[in-house]
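One thing: mind reviewing this one?
=====
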Amino acid sequence: MSGIVDQLLDNAYSSSLIYVAVTVMALVLFLTIFEWVTRYKCWDEIRKGNVSVAMATGGKIFGICNIFRFSAGAGDSIYESLLWGAFGFVILLMAYFLFEFLTPVFRIDEEIRKDNRAVGLISMIISVSVSYIIGATI
């Protein structure tokens, strides 16, 4: 089985498709986990037009994909990219919880659910910024 995968990864086009497919599958998994740990339902809130939730979720999407981008750019195997993606997602979650911890005067999840766009924007910027730091270490 690994021989077939290795042959596919040797072709630039199939390799690109595999990296994209794996990244999208990981993204779906990581966003599902993110939805479990927040006090709001991301896609329900986005459907209602909640821009803050869209920014926070978009930041996570960008952050996760950015980590995969750095890993692919470093020439990592698809397996190494998955490890970096999972590691990066855990760090992004930790950054989100740290943001919550460092703002004891209000609850981040509640403010984002109430469409406080300032909080949504900061959440997005934290995710994007942390993904660049993670990427720089790859």
User: Anything to note?
Assistant: Helices lie at 2-10, 12-37, 42-47, 51-73, 78-101, 108-113, 117-137. The chain has one domain: 2-137. The chain has a mean pLDDT of 90.
